[in-house]
Sequence to fold (747 residues):
Amino acid sequence: MQANVLLVDDETEFALALAERLRLRSYDARAVFHVEDAIAAVQSASPDVVLLDFRMPGMDGIEVLKIIKKIDPTIEVIMLTGHGDVRSVEEAIRNGAYEYIMKPLDLGELIMKINNAKKKRNSIS
Amino acid sequence: MTAMKCWEVFQCNKQACPAYGSKDLKCWLFSGTHCREAIQGKFLEKMEMCLDCEVLNENKDFDAMKATLNAVNKQFKEFVRIIGERENELGRMSIELAISLSEVFEGLKKIASGDPTVRLDERSDIELISKLKHFVNVTAQEIGGIVDQSHEFAIVLAELFDVLHKVSKGDLLARVSGRSQVELLESLKTVTNEMIESISKEITRRERAETELKKAYDKLERKVEDRTAELRRINEKLWHEILERKKAEEELRDAELRYRTVADFTNDWEYWETPEGKLRYVSPSCERITGYKAEQFIEYPGLVSEITVPEDKNIWASHHHDALDVLGHRDIVFRIRRQDGQICWIEHVCQPVTDNKGTFLGIRASNRDISMRRQAEDALRKSEHLLLQAHKMEALGRMAAGVAHEINNPLAIINEKAGLMQDFLEISGDFKQNREKFIGLINGIFESVKRCRTITHRLLGFSRRIDVTFEVIDLNEIIREVLGFIEKEMLYRNIRLELHLQEDLPKVFSDKGQLQQVFLNIVNNAVDAVEKGGLIEVQTDIKDEDTVTASIKDNGPGIPQNILSHIFEPFYTTKEKGKGTGLGLSISYGIIQKLGGAILVQSEVQKGTTFIVEIPTKAKTG
Ligand SMILES: Nc1ncnc2c1ncn2[C@@H]1O[C@H](COP(=O)(O)OP(=O)(O)O)[C@@H](O)[C@H]1O
Ligand SMILES: [Mg+2]
Fold:
C-alpha cells in the first residue's frame, strides 16, 4: 500500500501538478492551499506524510509543523523550501520535521523521502 | 454632854467651811464642807471618809443621823433625776451627731470629687458638729477659689503664650492685655510685656546696626570694585603692551624662520628659479626627497622635469610654462622617479617673487613629498570601497534569498508541469487523449516564465552602480520598485503595507541606484523591526519648492535614546550575528549627504520609528 500524502502549499498550480504526478504513481495524494484546510485534513484523513511549504501566508511553516505534530506525532512531515535557509531547516528538524527538500524538486528524491518517511511511520505505529 | 466640834477636834480653821462654827448641824457630812479637800465633790468617798470620822463617832446622835440621812436621801433623789435627764439628752445628741457627721462626710466627698460649691448649715447644738461643718464650708470655699483662679491662670497663660508666639514671629507690637485677680498672673503679664519691649528694642537696635554695617560694606565693596576695575584696566594695558611686544618679537622670529625655511631647515624641497630659468637656490632637503643633491639641480635645472614620470610630464610641462607668465599662487601634483628608482608623489606649490618695486625676480617653489599621504588616502578609499562592498554583499545576500524564493516557486511550477507532461507521455502513453491537458499545462508554464521574467527585470532595473550618476527620476517609482523586492517577504510575515504616494511629486535630479539602496536599507530595517502583523507606512511629500521627502514609518519597538545616537555609525547593529552588518544606515547616510539631502529619525519606544529622507529636486553636491 502506497503512502497517503498531503501536500500543503499556497502555490496552487504547483501543488495540484505535484499531487497529480504522485497519484499517477499510485500514491494517495491530495493538495490543500491554506493552513486551516491543512489542519482539518490532518485531523480527518490522518495522512502518512505531509509535504509542507515553509512559507505560508499568515502562518510560519514551523508553527504549522508544530500543530501537525501535536495532533499526531507519528505523521512524518517533509518541509519544502524555496531557498536553502539553513537556519529554518535546522529549526524545523528540531521541531520534529522528518526531512526537507528544495524547490524546484527532483521527483525521484521526493519519492525516496516519502517512502522512507512512510517506512519510519510503519515501524513506529 | 457637850457635842464635839470638828474644827475643834481637827484644829481646822477653815472658816469658809459651812461646818465651821455650826451648832445646828449634827453632822458635817453634807456637801460643801471643806473637810479633806482632796475628795471634795466626790460624795460617796466623802461619805466613806465621814463614817470613819472621830467626831461623828463621838457625837452619835440618831436624830442628827436621821436628819443627815434625809438630807443624803434628798441629795440622791436629786442625783437620780439629773442622771435620767442626762441620759435623754445623750440619746438625742447621738442621733444629731450621726446625721451631722454623714452631712459632713457628704460635703467632704463632694469637695474631694471636685465640686467646691458645697455649703452646710452650720447651726447645731453640738459644738463639735458646728465646728466640723464650718471647717467643711471653709474648705469648700477655699477650694472653689483655687479652681476659679486656675481657670484664670489657664486663660492668662494661653494669652501669654499667644503673645510670645507673635513676638517670636516678629510682631513686636503684641502685648498682654487686661488685669488679673491673681497677683502672680499679673506680675507674669507685666514681666512678659517688659520682656517683649526689651526684645523689640534690641531688635530695632540690631537692625539699625545691620543697616549701618551693610552701608559700610557696600561702600567698601564699591571701593573694592572700583579698585579691581582699575587694576583690570592697568592689567589689560599691561597685557596689551606685552602682546604688542610679543607680536613684534614673533614677527621678528617669523621673518627669521621664513628666512631659514627658504634657506635650509625645511622638510620640503624648496627652490628659487630666476626669470632666466636658472636655479638660484635649492634647499638641501631635495636630496632626501629625490636622492639628487642640490648642486645637481643647480648645475642642471632641467633635472626636475627629467625625473618626472612620463605619465605626468605634460602636467609638469604645462604648469611650468604657466608659472612663468601668470602671477599668483598655483599648485599641482605629479610623480617623480627618485634616483633609487622609487616613485614619489610631489605636491608642488609656487609663487612669483618680486622686490618691493614690483620687479619680477623669478619663481619660488616648494615641493612636498606626499607619498605617505597618498598611500593613506588610497588605503582609506580602498577601505571605503570594501565597506560599500561588504554592505552590497549583505544586501545582495538578503536579496538573493528573497529572489531565490520568488524565482524558485515559478520554477517549481514549470518543473512539475513539464514533469506531468512527461508522465502523461511515459505513463499513459497517449498524447492525443491528453491534448487539452497539455495545452493547459503549457499555458501554466508560460505564466510561470512570465513571473520569473518580472523578477529578473526588476533585478536588472536595480542599479548596481556605486558612483554618483545623476538623472531625472520619479521618487514614487523608485519607492515602488524597492517595495517590489520586499513585498513577498512582507506578505509571508503578515506585515501590512500602506502607501501614500503624493501625486504630481516633482521629479528629482539625483542618483537612482543610490536612492534605491537607501530606501531598500530603511525598508529592510522596518521589516526587521515590526512583529508579525505589524504595519509599515511609506509616504512621499513635497516639503518645499526645492525638496521632496519620503518617510518610512513602522510600528515596531522604537529605538531607545542611548541606541539612537549610534545607529548611523558603521558596524553598529543590535541584530544577532549573521542578520545585521550595521552598515545599512551609515551607508545610506553617506549617500544622502553626497546627494545634498538629509536623513531624519523620529522614534518613540514601544510606538515605532519613522525615517524621513529629504532629497533636493535639483542636484547639489554636498
Ligand atoms: N526601523 C527601526 N526600528 C528599530 N530599530 C532600528 C530601525 N532601523 C534601524 N534600527 C537600529 O539601527 C541599527 C543599525 O541599522 P543598520 O545600520 O541598518 O544596520 P543593521 O540593520 O545591519 O543592524 C539596527 O541594528 C537597529 O538597532
Ligand atoms: Mg539594516
Notes: Chain B has a mean pLDDT of 79. Chain B touches chain A at residues 400-401, 404-406, 408-409, 411-417, 419-420, 423, 427-428, 441, 444, 447-448, 491-492, 494, 532 (CB under 8 Å). The longest strand of chain B covers residues 343-354.
